[in-house]
Amino acid sequence: MSSKYPNPWRSPRLHYRAIRPCDKPIFLALTTDPAMYMASTHATLKLPTEQDADENMHQGPPSAGEGNSESLLQAIIWRPHDTPIASLPLEQKEAVLEEMKRVNPAQILDPEYGVAVGHIHSAPSSLHEAHHRTMEIALDILPAYQGKGYGSEAINWALDFGFRRAGLHSVRLRAFGWNKGAIRLYERLGFVVEGREREAVWFEGEWWDSFTLGMLDREWRAREAGKQEEAEFGHMDEEAQFGHVE
């Protein structure tokens, strides 16, 4: 694909692909992490089951996927292998994967895409609501890959997909009051607090507010234009600093 139209399923450090039946271990890992579970649902904390992983994988119980509701965006997030192995002979490929698994048994590997980092998706919406041109996204990053900027990169990728490719007018997400780090991150990325349900969530013996944050297409385009200007000025600064003097 030419540089004018870059691969839409990649961002600087990550690759994205559709969910496959073989991805159940990823959802089991996400479901069995208590902190992840508590940050992503209003439901009472309970011991995770395979059914929970199945429902997360298919975005709800079996009946939820029927009818006219559909998710605009669902992707597994991958960090590519440091050295490409997809083209290796089968025996060599299996040996490399086996060694990687030995070094870090918790890794979830794909020969082509790399190491699983997490899952990003939009809430299912009815075809009868498509004219609103909005989506609500949610993000789950496996514990081993948190704090490395992958979440920010995946959200920026989803924004680019939503506004540039899907023609959306707005993108929203939700956060709970105790997750102050997530709220700060979303605001740094350009989201604005649009709604606040006071004391809507009972968590660890306290009442907490629930927040809705959003971004409009014109706000995203203004931020992208600002980034472009910064990049151009940075390039000019480099030329000024390193240009030779005659």
Mind telling me the CATH superfamily name of the largest domain? Gcn5-related N-acetyltransferase (GNAT)
Name the assembly state: single chain
The poorly predicted ranges are 61-68, 238-246
Elements, N to C (H/E): EHHHEEHEEEEHEHEEH
Distance between the termini: 41 Å
Nearest-integer average pLDDT: 86
Please give the number of β-strands.
Answer: 10
Alpha-carbon Rg, integer: 20 Å
CATH architecture identity of the largest domain = 3-Layer(aba) Sandwich
CATH class label of the largest domain: Alpha Beta
Number of domains: 2
Helix proportion: 25-40%
Number of helical segments with 4 or more residues: 7
CATH topology of the largest domain, which one?
A: Aminopeptidase
Outline the biggest β-sheet: 8 strands, mixed
Q: What is the global morphology? A: globular
Strand content: 25-35%
Structural class: alpha+beta
Question: How is this structure best described in words?
Answer:
By secondary structure, the chain is α+β, with helices and mostly antiparallel strands. It has 2 domains: 1-168, Gcn5-related N-acetyltransferase (GNAT) (Aminopeptidase, 3-Layer(aba) Sandwich); 170-246, Gcn5-related N-acetyltransferase (GNAT) (Aminopeptidase, 3-Layer(aba) Sandwich), CATH 3.40.630.30. The chain has 7 helices and 10 strands. The chain has helices at residues 24-31, 34-40, 50-57, 90-103, 150-165, 180-188, 217-242; strands at 15-17, 69-70, 74-79, 109-110, 114-122, 125-126, 134-141, 170-176, 192-203, 206-216. Strands 1, 3, 4, 5, 7, 8, 9 and 10 form an 8-stranded mixed sheet that branches. The chain has a two-stranded antiparallel ribbon with strand order 2-6. Residues 61-68 and 238-246 have low confidence and may be disordered.
